Amino acid sequence: MSAHGFEFKGIDGDTLALSQFKGRPVMVVNTASECGFTPQYADLETLWRRYRGRGLVVLGVPSNDFGAQEPGGEAEIKSFCESTYAVDFPLTAKQTVSGSGAHPFYRWIVEAVGETAAPKWNFHKYLIGPDGDLVGLWPSKVKPLAPEIIAAIEELLPK
Asked: Is the pLDDT of residue 5 over 90?
Protein backbone atom coordinates (compact mmCIF):
# COMPACT_ATOMS: atom_id res chain seq x y z
CA MET A 1 0.00 0.00 0.00
CA SER A 2 1.07 3.59 -0.57
CA ALA A 3 -0.03 6.91 0.90
CA HIS A 4 -2.32 7.26 -2.13
CA GLY A 5 -4.66 4.72 -0.54
CA PHE A 6 -5.67 7.11 2.25
CA GLU A 7 -8.06 10.00 2.51
CA PHE A 8 -8.84 12.62 5.11
CA LYS A 9 -11.90 14.69 5.79
CA GLY A 10 -11.06 18.24 4.76
CA ILE A 11 -11.42 21.17 7.12
CA ASP A 12 -14.47 22.30 5.12
CA GLY A 13 -16.06 18.83 5.23
CA ASP A 14 -14.94 17.70 1.76
CA THR A 15 -12.87 14.60 1.11
CA LEU A 16 -9.11 14.97 0.64
CA ALA A 17 -7.98 11.78 -1.05
CA LEU A 18 -4.20 11.53 -1.22
CA SER A 19 -4.67 9.74 -4.56
CA GLN A 20 -5.54 13.12 -6.09
CA PHE A 21 -1.88 14.05 -5.57
CA LYS A 22 -0.40 11.10 -7.51
CA GLY A 23 2.70 12.26 -9.35
CA ARG A 24 3.33 15.06 -6.84
CA PRO A 25 5.30 15.15 -3.59
CA VAL A 26 3.23 15.86 -0.48
CA MET A 27 4.47 17.25 2.83
CA VAL A 28 2.07 16.07 5.55
CA VAL A 29 2.39 17.88 8.89
CA ASN A 30 0.35 17.43 12.06
CA THR A 31 -0.34 20.92 13.35
CA ALA A 32 -1.68 22.75 16.41
CA SER A 33 -2.63 26.38 16.97
CA GLU A 34 -1.38 26.79 20.55
CA CYS A 35 2.06 25.16 20.37
CA GLY A 36 5.55 26.59 20.65
CA PHE A 37 6.08 25.27 17.10
CA THR A 38 2.96 26.99 15.72
CA PRO A 39 5.06 29.69 13.98
CA GLN A 40 6.16 26.90 11.61
CA TYR A 41 2.87 27.58 9.83
CA ALA A 42 4.65 30.58 8.26
CA ASP A 43 7.45 28.36 6.91
CA LEU A 44 4.95 25.77 5.65
CA GLU A 45 3.12 28.53 3.77
CA THR A 46 6.47 29.68 2.33
CA LEU A 47 7.19 26.12 1.13
CA TRP A 48 3.73 25.93 -0.42
CA ARG A 49 4.08 29.24 -2.25
CA ARG A 50 7.63 28.53 -3.38
CA TYR A 51 7.08 25.02 -4.73
CA ARG A 52 3.40 24.50 -5.51
CA GLY A 53 3.94 25.65 -9.09
CA ARG A 54 6.40 22.76 -9.46
CA GLY A 55 4.00 20.27 -7.89
CA LEU A 56 4.54 20.25 -4.12
CA VAL A 57 1.48 19.88 -1.92
CA VAL A 58 1.59 20.90 1.74
CA LEU A 59 -1.13 19.27 3.83
CA GLY A 60 -1.78 20.41 7.39
CA VAL A 61 -3.40 17.90 9.73
CA PRO A 62 -4.66 19.67 12.87
CA SER A 63 -4.49 17.47 15.95
CA ASN A 64 -5.18 17.90 19.65
CA ASP A 65 -3.06 14.85 20.59
CA PHE A 66 -0.10 16.63 22.14
CA GLY A 67 -0.59 18.99 25.07
CA ALA A 68 -4.23 19.65 24.06
CA GLN A 69 -2.84 22.47 21.91
CA GLU A 70 -5.56 22.33 19.23
CA PRO A 71 -8.74 22.66 21.28
CA GLY A 72 -10.89 24.48 18.71
CA GLY A 73 -13.20 23.19 16.04
CA GLU A 74 -12.59 23.26 12.30
CA ALA A 75 -13.98 26.76 11.69
CA GLU A 76 -11.85 28.20 14.48
CA ILE A 77 -8.72 26.38 13.27
CA LYS A 78 -9.22 27.55 9.70
CA SER A 79 -9.85 31.15 10.77
CA PHE A 80 -6.74 31.16 12.97
CA CYS A 81 -4.53 29.74 10.20
CA GLU A 82 -5.81 32.17 7.58
CA SER A 83 -5.80 35.30 9.73
CA THR A 84 -2.56 34.67 11.63
CA TYR A 85 -0.36 32.96 9.00
CA ALA A 86 -2.20 33.57 5.69
CA VAL A 87 -2.36 29.79 5.24
CA ASP A 88 -3.96 28.73 1.98
CA PHE A 89 -2.52 25.23 1.66
CA PRO A 90 -5.01 22.40 2.28
CA LEU A 91 -5.97 21.53 5.84
CA THR A 92 -7.77 18.44 7.04
CA ALA A 93 -10.39 18.27 9.74
CA LYS A 94 -8.93 17.68 13.21
CA GLN A 95 -7.46 14.16 13.44
CA THR A 96 -5.97 11.77 15.95
CA VAL A 97 -2.39 11.13 14.81
CA SER A 98 -0.94 8.97 17.57
CA GLY A 99 -1.79 5.76 19.38
CA SER A 100 -4.23 3.02 18.51
CA GLY A 101 -6.91 5.52 17.46
CA ALA A 102 -4.64 7.31 15.00
CA HIS A 103 -5.85 8.05 11.50
CA PRO A 104 -5.00 5.10 9.19
CA PHE A 105 -2.35 7.18 7.36
CA TYR A 106 -0.37 7.53 10.58
CA ARG A 107 -0.85 3.85 11.49
CA TRP A 108 0.46 2.96 8.00
CA ILE A 109 3.64 4.97 8.63
CA VAL A 110 4.22 3.21 11.97
CA GLU A 111 3.58 -0.20 10.40
CA ALA A 112 5.95 0.57 7.51
CA VAL A 113 8.80 2.22 9.43
CA GLY A 114 8.32 1.35 13.09
CA GLU A 115 7.14 3.09 16.24
CA THR A 116 10.01 5.58 16.04
CA ALA A 117 8.29 7.11 12.98
CA ALA A 118 5.14 8.04 14.92
CA PRO A 119 4.74 11.75 15.61
CA LYS A 120 6.01 12.60 19.08
CA TRP A 121 4.67 16.17 19.10
CA ASN A 122 2.99 18.78 16.92
CA PHE A 123 4.59 19.74 13.58
CA HIS A 124 6.12 16.34 12.78
CA LYS A 125 6.77 16.30 9.04
CA TYR A 126 6.39 13.46 6.51
CA LEU A 127 7.40 13.77 2.88
CA ILE A 128 5.50 11.49 0.52
CA GLY A 129 7.02 10.94 -2.91
CA PRO A 130 5.13 11.25 -6.20
CA ASP A 131 4.61 7.46 -6.17
CA GLY A 132 3.02 7.52 -2.70
CA ASP A 133 6.03 6.16 -0.80
CA LEU A 134 7.28 7.75 2.39
CA VAL A 135 10.62 9.33 1.47
CA GLY A 136 11.43 11.47 4.51
CA LEU A 137 10.37 12.36 8.02
CA TRP A 138 11.51 15.03 10.41
CA PRO A 139 10.59 15.80 14.02
CA SER A 140 9.02 19.01 15.24
CA LYS A 141 12.29 20.79 15.97
CA VAL A 142 13.38 20.58 12.31
CA LYS A 143 11.93 23.67 10.65
CA PRO A 144 10.12 23.30 7.31
CA LEU A 145 12.74 25.43 5.52
CA ALA A 146 15.69 23.43 6.91
CA PRO A 147 18.29 22.60 4.23
CA GLU A 148 17.67 18.85 4.53
CA ILE A 149 13.94 19.28 3.91
CA ILE A 150 14.48 21.66 0.99
CA ALA A 151 16.99 19.23 -0.56
CA ALA A 152 14.57 16.29 -0.20
CA ILE A 153 11.72 18.27 -1.78
CA GLU A 154 13.83 19.57 -4.67
CA GLU A 155 15.02 16.04 -5.40
CA LEU A 156 11.37 15.06 -6.05
CA LEU A 157 10.35 18.05 -8.16
CA PRO A 158 10.75 18.46 -11.90
CA LYS A 159 13.69 20.67 -12.75
From this structure: yes
